[in-house]
């Protein structure tokens, strides 16, 4: 396609996006539409309507993954991406029965005492054909494909069972933190599943923490109701990736929480970015005023640890202390009563 023709297409598409992005008022509600457009071009991409529609759909799907209003021209490389996605989804459907899923556990450290007070369960997948697929690549597919219910239940069961096993072995009781995703949390059977897992394994609910993100706020009233029910069981609730979503401050007032996790993107720049430094200080102060435990993710340097401790952040997690560890590696730390040197 000639550049002048491509510019004309972009001009038309931008006009469509502008029109569709205007708020609609329906029965006193303001509805915001976020259009995502895929574009294929005749004859470069196809010689008939069916081909052009299929390729435009592929481009649109790829564009929607960016989760923002935009458009994308079809590119033959997109076929490779979609084929890889389909291959991953197909293999994931057999991952549990083939015993390919594992949990690793990243320690959470009391910054004042240096003791391990909990771990976060992190899923890993090893497939002989695909080799190592990163969580960032396969977890979105788990969510999109509907596999989040069985795999999410497996993660919850495995993490709780492991925590109970550590306790039965006489190791110090610690908190087990499990990530919960939107399609999992709002499933009608989720509350029942949590209850059943805790009762079957005989793990006290206070040793289980469920992590949600700001992106989980599908319906704030529904979310608040669900979290209140979970807290009635005795489970702890943490808000993960705080500061990266929308309406961050209002969500603290809307939902019941125990813990607030500061996203790693803020921690990485606290010694270089004055704005990030100010934001982290304010997040810590707000959390402490609300009687929440503050957990800083992604601590990688002693300088970051010192800053957080001096500003009353009481729990830390990151490579400075430990990478995600195997069951055996966590056991060794707990048996030794490992104390991570506390910076002053």
UniProtKB/TrEMBL annotation:
EAL domain span: 85-338
Protein name as catalogued: EAL domain, c-di-GMP-specific phosphodiesterase class I (Or its enzymatically inactive variant)
GO terms for MF: cyclic-guanylate-specific phosphodiesterase activity
Family annotation (Pfam families): EAL, GGDEF
Record SUPFAM superfamilies: EAL domain-like, Nucleotide cyclase
Domain GGDEF: 1-76
CDD domains: EAL
Organism: Selenihalanaerobacter shriftii
InterPro entries the UniProt entry points to: Cyclic-di-GMP_PDE-like, EAL_dom, EAL_sf, GGDEF_dom, Nucleotide_cyclase, Rev_trsase/Diguanyl_cyclase
Top-level taxon of origin: Bacteria
């Amino acid at each position: 396609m000639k550049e002048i023709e491509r510019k004309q297409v972009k001009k038309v598409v931008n006009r469509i996006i502008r029109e569709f992005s205007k708020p609609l008022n329906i029965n006193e509600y303001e509805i915001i539409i976020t259009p995502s457009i895929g574009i294929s071009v005749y004859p470069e991409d196809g010689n008939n309507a069916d081909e052009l529609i299929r390729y435009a759909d592929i481009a649109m799907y790829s564009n929607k993954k960016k989760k923002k209003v935009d458009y994308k021209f079809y590119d033959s490389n997109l076929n490779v991406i979609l084929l890889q996605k389909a291959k991953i989804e197909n293999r994931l459907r057999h991952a549990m029965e083939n015993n390919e899923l594992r949990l690793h556990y990243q320690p959470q450290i009391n910054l004042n005492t240096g003791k391990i007070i909990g771990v976060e369960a992190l899923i890993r997948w090893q497939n002989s054909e695909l080799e190592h697929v990163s969580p960032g690549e396969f977890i979105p597919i788990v969510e999109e494909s509907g596999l989040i219910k069985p795999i999410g239940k497996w993660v919850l069961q495995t993490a709780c069972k492991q925590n109970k096993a550590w306790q039965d072995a006489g190791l110090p009781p610690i908190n087990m933190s499990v990530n919960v995703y939107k399609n999992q949390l709002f499933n009608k059977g989720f509350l029942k599943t949590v209850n059943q897992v805790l009762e079957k394994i005989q793990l006290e609910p206070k040793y289980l923490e469920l992590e949600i993100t700001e992106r989980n706020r599908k319906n704030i009233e529904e979310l608040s109701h669900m979290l209140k029910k979970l807290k009635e069981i005795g489970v702890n609730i943490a808000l993960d990736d705080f500061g990266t979503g929308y309406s961050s401050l209002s969500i603290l007032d809307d939902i019941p929480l125990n813990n607030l996790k500061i996203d790693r993107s803020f921690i990485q720049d606290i010694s270089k970015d004055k704005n990030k430094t100010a934001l982290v200080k304010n997040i810590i102060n707000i959390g402490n005023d609300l009687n929440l435990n503050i957990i800083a993710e992604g601590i990688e340097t002693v300088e970051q640890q010192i800053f957080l401790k001096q500003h009353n952040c009481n729990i830390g997690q990151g490579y400075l202390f430990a990478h995600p560890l195997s069951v055996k590696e966590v056991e060794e730390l707990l048996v030794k009563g490992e104390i991570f040197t506390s910076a002053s």
